[in-house]
Amino acid sequence: MLACRGLLLTCLLLTTTVQSQRSCTDLLPLDLLARALPPQGQTPPTQVGHRFGASSMWSQMNFKDVTLDDNRWHTVVLAITGPYASLTIDCGLTLGLQQVQSFPSSLSTRGSRVYIGTRRRWRGRFTVIQTCSHWSFCVKGLMRQLVLLPGSDATPRLCPTSDPSLAELSVPNVLKSTPLQPDQEGPIYPYGKERLDYVEDYLDLYTSSETFDVEIFSIPSEGLFMAAANRDSRPGSGIYKWTEGSFQLYQNISTQEARAWKHFTIDEKVKKRSWFWSSLLRDSQIFLVVANSREAEPELSVIYRWNWRRQRFLRHQTLETHSAVDWEAFSIHNHSFLVVANHRRARDSNHNIHSVIYKWNPNTKLFEVNQTLSTSGAYDWEFFTVGPYHFLVVANTFDGHTTAVSSTIYVWLDGCFQTFQNIQTVGATDWETFHIDGRFFLAVANSQKVSSRGPSLYSINSTVYELNALTQTFIRFQDILTHSAVDWEFFTVGDEKFLVVANSHDGSSYSLNSVVYRWQGYEGFVPVHSLPTFGCRDWEHFSTDKGSFLIYSSATSRLSKVFKLRTY
Ligand SMILES: *[C@@H]1O[C@H](CO)[C@@H](O)[C@H](O)[C@H]1NC(C)=O
Ligand SMILES: *[C@@H]1O[C@H](CO)[C@@H](O)[C@H](O)[C@H]1NC(C)=O
Ligand SMILES: *[C@@H]1O[C@H](CO)[C@@H](O)[C@H](O)[C@H]1NC(C)=O
Ligand SMILES: *[C@@H]1O[C@H](CO)[C@@H](O)[C@H](O)[C@H]1NC(C)=O
């Protein structure tokens, strides 16, 4: 379908790009295919060429000395404009050819057929022949991806670097935007946008104890801050300030086995009076709430408020929680809410308890209980909005017997949250919500499958779900193998979208790679980078004037690491 649409555009615009590509990181399909390929030297030479013409007059041209037959993947870009054709392999030197006959300025595509991947000619290899009415081109070899692009030459877009392994495999945006003008003057050149090149070690940050969560936020006219949820009560958790390209400890806050921090603001109308006037001003109050997980009565979590005069966070309110592991803050119709993930009650070690939604009372300036929701070992809450609807989703980890429990999505109706959909999860620890090109997604981190006999399984699938507008439900979009996944973080660099997963354990080790996946359209999320982590618990993306960064915190070590996202 895509090819056909591309083909149509191609024919109208008289330009073709063929791309088949090797990506150094997505190894699995490459290895599988490698086994299916005949060994080197036993195959006919690869031909790259194209031919076209009216039914009576064919013109055929071949690029000579093209070596593609080496059992590796290659990026092949073929561009045709007027009498010119160019071929670029692996983003190297471009070979040019001029032909006697110009590519026709208009072609009928009615009744055209497209063949991709016939195996007729050579056993064990695919011959790819692509036909557009009287015009065709062929690339012989095994083709992994074919992209047709309008424009006179897509080489600069596909080959921004001379290292072909960095070239990208994706659905070009140009294919998604229609209609294209067939009589558009001149070639369509892509414009440069920032893109992720590689990820670089930037900073080692030693916190006072193991860190279960980092929360990045900014305070207007103060700067960028990070709250680290640390295990030990003394000196407790650390608030860090980004100073000269690094996080410096700014404030110690005593916490009880802190598991998470959440930052939020509440806009208040405050009356300001002076001797001759009185007016209402909008004032932004900055809060931080900590999830304390220590199972000792009374179990309390604390809300802190930023004091502008003293330039630090001061205690504002305490709330009874039960082994709290997460807070989510949100607002609906200008009412501010907080919801806590109560994981387990200390008194009876029960996981099937209530998690509580609190609502801000502007008169008392305190949070008050608004609704309770029954959860099973709740681990994470996420709030999201789709169109006019507000949702909350909980990650239920464990019901006391099994981790195969359902996690629930709630929708806000008639002044309270009501069940919208239950999704079967396996030790769910995190939900991440994001949208791409008008499509809405939810990703769950599944951490552990407990088995009545034998050890637990940690290498299990985590799943990305997509909201289906027709059925009005979330439907499985992609399974991704993870190793006791405990966090997903979605981020963008330029136009590109990424997900990074916190892989924390595989059953024997905590020293595992966390993986960065790039959104590649119909291929979904494809692994592009592996980052060595130790007991990885949380990933956060943030940007400063020094660029774009990722930070991860460790639940088994004092070392948190900052990585810099290098772009080109
Ligand atoms: C935080 O606590 C540590 C350890 O007690 C201490 O060395 C440090 O000076 C404190 N930092 C601040 C900013 O209070
Ligand atoms: C929320 O507050 C903003 C700013 O005070 C105001 O413009 C807006 O109308 C309010 N919305 C609702 C739904 O009350
Ligand atoms: C919870 O908050 C909503 C929105 O303000 C309100 O309509 C509802 O009455 C509240 N429920 C309770 C039990 O306070
Ligand atoms: C993960 O999902 C894929 C695709 O749905 C499936 O083929 C595979 O068996 C699953 N793996 C595990 C470990 O569940």
TrEMBL record:
Keywords: Repeat, Signal. PROSITE patterns: EAR. InterPro entries: ConA-like_dom_sf, EAR, EPTP. Gene3D superfamilies: 2.60.120.200. Residues 1-20 form the signal peptide. This is Thrombospondin-type laminin G domain and EAR repeat-containing protein. One of its GO terms (cellular component) is stereocilium. It is found in: Cell projection, Stereocilium. Its main location: other.
